[in-house]
Write a structure and sequence with these properties.
single chain, alpha/beta, Rossmann fold, 4-stranded parallel β-sheet, 7 helices, globular
C-alpha cells in the first residue's frame, strides 16, 4: 500500500519554479509516479498555488507564457486534493494554529497530515521549526 505524504505549497511551488530547494521534491515525485507514495494536499492548495504563480508573474520572475506552462506542468502531477472539512477538523486546525502560532492555512496542512497519519514536507520556516516536536515532518 502506498505511503501518504502531504506537501505544502512552498515545496511544490519551489519545484515548479525550479528553485534549488525544490529539488527535494524530485524523489517524492518519482515515488508518486511509481505508485509507492500518494501525494495529498488540502483544498486550499490550488488557491495558494495560483496566487504563487500570479505573484511570480507580477514580480516579473516568470512571463505569462511561463505561467501558463507551469500550470500545465502542475496539472500533470498526481495530487490528491482533500475537500474541506468537517466541524471537528476545523477545530483541530484552530488548535494547531493556536498551539504552534501558525496561520490557519499552515495549520490546515498539519491537520491533514495528522489526520491521514502521513509524512509532511514543507519549506515553510514556521512549519520546519516543528520538526523536533512533530516527528512526521520531514
Amino acid at each position: 500500500m502506498p505511503h501518504d505524504l502531504v506537501a505544502d505549497t512552498s515545496m511544490i511551488a519551489a519545484f515548479l519554479l525550479r528553485e534549488p530547494q525544490g529539488e527535494k521534491f524530485d524523489s517524492v515525485l518519482l515515488q508518486v509516479i511509481a505508485g509507492t507514495m500518494r501525494l495529498r494536499v488540502p483544498a486550499l492548495f490550488s488557491f495558494e498555488m495560483l496566487n504563487v504563480l500570479l505573484m511570480a508573474e507580477r514580480q516579473k520572475r516568470i512571463t505569462p507564457a511561463q505561467q501558463n506552462q507551469l500550470i500545465t506542468e502542475w496539472e500533470t502531477i498526481p495530487i490528491n486534493e482533500h475537500p474541506l472539512l468537517d466541524s471537528l477538523a476545523r477545530r483541530r486546525i484552530l488548535t494547531h494554529a493556536d498551539r504552534y502560532n501558525l496561520t490557519a492555512y499552515d495549520a490546515t496542512y498539519l491537520e491533514l497530515a495528522e489526520g491521514l497519519n502521513a509524512s509532511f514536507l514543507s519549506l515553510n520556516t514556521e512549519l520546519l521549526k516543528l520538526k523536533g516536536t512533530l516527528d512526521w515532518i520531514l
